Automatic annotation (TrEMBL):
GO terms for cellular component: cytoplasm. This is Dihydroorotase. Its cofactor is Zn(2+). Pathway: Pyrimidine metabolism; UMP biosynthesis via de novo pathway; (S)-dihydroorotate from bicarbonate: step 3/3. One of its GO terms (molecular function) is dihydroorotase activity. It comes from Candidatus Vogelbacteria bacterium RIFOXYD1_FULL_51_18. The modification N6-carboxylysine is found at K102.
Length: 348
C-alpha cells in the first residue's frame, strides 16, 4: 500500500455516464463534479437517436450545468438501432458532433427495447457507415437469449464478427465484467478498447445475492466471480492504454431499485474517482491511475489535448456520502457499508 496523502493530476474523463433528464438530471449533474469530459449515454426513456436529439439533449445538460455551476464537457452519443440509417450517422457526426454510437442488447438493461439481437442482420450497413465516418462503436456486450452469467462471454463471438468485418471501426466494449473479456481485449486489435467501472472493481455476485438481495449492487452486466474481479483489477493496473475509465454511473430512484422488477444500475458519480484511486492504491499501482483516468481514453477516442487543461488536487481524507445521499434520494455507491470514501477533491 502506498503512502500517498495528496495527489495532483490532469482532470479525469469519464467515458460512460448516464445523466438521465428532467428532475433526475438536475441532481445527477449537480453531483457530477470532478470530470473534465463525460461521454453521455443515450438510453433515455425517449432515446437519443439522431443529431437533433443529441443537440437538444446537449442543451439540456448545458442548462443544468449552468444552474449548478458544474463545468465538465458533455460528449454526445446516439443509440444505434436497426433503423439507424446512413444519413442519420452522417448527420450525427457532422451536425450533432456525436462521438459514439451505442448499441444495447434488446431487453437486457434499462430502456433497451430498441436494442439489437442479430448484428449481421440488423446492423451490417450501419456499421459500415460508422467505420467510414469515424463514429466509435460503443457496445453493451451481452448476448440476448443466453443465461445471465454467460451473456458477456457469449457476446465475444459477436464481437469477433464485428472486428473481422469492420477492421477500421473503433470499438469500446463497455463496463467489462469477466476475465474472458479482459483476455479478449488484451489480445485484440488496436481498434478495440474497454471501459472498467469502479463498482466492478469491488463487487462479485455474492455482493448482490450472496446473503440477502442487495438491489443497489445490481447492475448490468451483473458482477461475476472472484477470479473475474481479479482479472479486472489486473487490467486496471496493467498500463495497457486500451483499458480506461467509464463509470457507468446509472442512477435510479430508491423506489425503482427496491421493488419487484427493480432496475439495473449503480450510481457512483460522487464516489467513482475516489473508488478508482483506492483500487489503484490497494494494488500498489498508483502511478497508472492518472493515465487510466485522463489519458488513455482521450487518446483512443482521438480527442485533442486541451491546451488550458486544469488540474485536480485530491487529498486522502475520509468523508461520508450518507448526507449527500439523503438530499438526492438515490443510493450512492461506496465500497463499504458505512458510506465512507477516502479521497477528497481539494481543488479543481
Ligand atoms: C444502465 C442504466 O440504468 O441506464 N444500467 C446498468 O445497469 N448499467 C444501462 C446500462 O448501461 O446497461
Ligand atoms: Zn451504462
Amino acid at each position: 500500500m502506498s503512502e500517498f496523502r495528496e495527489i495532483t493530476m490532469a482532470r479525469p474523463d469519464d467515458f460512460h455516464v448516464h445523466l438521465r433528464s428532467g428532475t433526475m438530471m438536475q441532481e445527477v449533474v449537480r453531483l457530477t463534479r470532478p470530470w473534465r469530459r463525460a461521454l453521455v449515454m443515450p438510453n433515455l426513456e425517449k432515446p437519443i437517436l439522431t443529431a437533433e436529439d443529441a443537440l437538444r439533449y446537449h442543451d439540456e445538460i448545458e442548462r443544468a450545468k449552468r444552474t449548478h455551476g458544474v463545468d465538465f464537457e458533455p460528449l454526445m452519443t446516439i443509440q444505434i438501432t436497426k433503423d439507424t440509417s446512413s444519413d442519420i450517422i452522417h448527420r450525427a457526426r457532422i451536425d450533432g458532433k456525436v462521438l459514439a454510437g451505442k448499441v444495447y442488447p434488446r431487453g437486457l438493461t434499462t430502456n433497451s427495447e430498441f436494442g439489437v439481437v442479430d448484428y449481421p442482420k440488423e446492423l451490417y450497413s450501419t456499421l459500415l457507415t460508422m467505420e467510414e465516418t469515424g463514429m466509435v462503436l460503443s457496445l453493451h456486450g451481452e448476448k440476448p437469449g443466453t443465461f445471465s452469467l454467460d451473456r458477456e462471454r457469449a457476446f465475444l463471438e459477436t464481437l469477433s464478427w464485428i472486428i473481422e468485418h469492420f477492421p477500421r471501426l473503433k470499438i469500446v466494449l463497455e463496463h467489462i465484467t469477466t476475465a474472458a473479456s479482459v483476455g479478449f481485449v488484451m489480445h485484440g486489435p488496436p481498434t478495440l478498447a474497454a471501459t472498467i467501472t469502479p463498482h466492478h472493481l469491488y463487487l462479485t455476485l455474492d455482493d448482490v445475492i450472496g446473503t440477502t438481495l442487495r438491489p443497489h449492487n445490481f447492475c448490468k452486466p451483473i458482477a461475476k466471480y472472484p477470479h473475474d474481479l481479479r482479472a479486472l483489477r489486473s487490467a486496471l493496473t496493467s498500463g495497457n492504454p486500451r483499458f480506461f475509465a467509464g463509470t457507468d454511473s446509472a442512477p435510479h430512484s430508491r423506489e425503482r431499485k427496491e421493488c419487484d422488477h427493480g432496475c439495473a444500475g449503480i450510481f457512483s458519480a460522487p464516489t467513482a474517482l475516489s473508488l478508482y484511486l483506492d483500487a489503484f492504491e490497494e494494488e500498489d499501482a498508483f502511478l497508472i491511475a492518472s493515465p487510466f483516468l485522463n489519458e488513455y481514453g482521450a487518446r483512443f477516442y482521438g480527442l485533442p489535448p486541451i491546451p488550458d487543461q486544469r488540474w485536480i488536487q485530491l487529498q486522502k481524507k475520509t468523508w461520508n456520502v450518507r448526507e449527500m445521499e439523503t438530499r438526492c434520494g438515490v443510493k450512492i455507491f461506496t465500497a463499504n457499508e458505512m458510506g465512507d470514501v477516502h479521497w477528497n477533491v481539494l481543488a479543481s
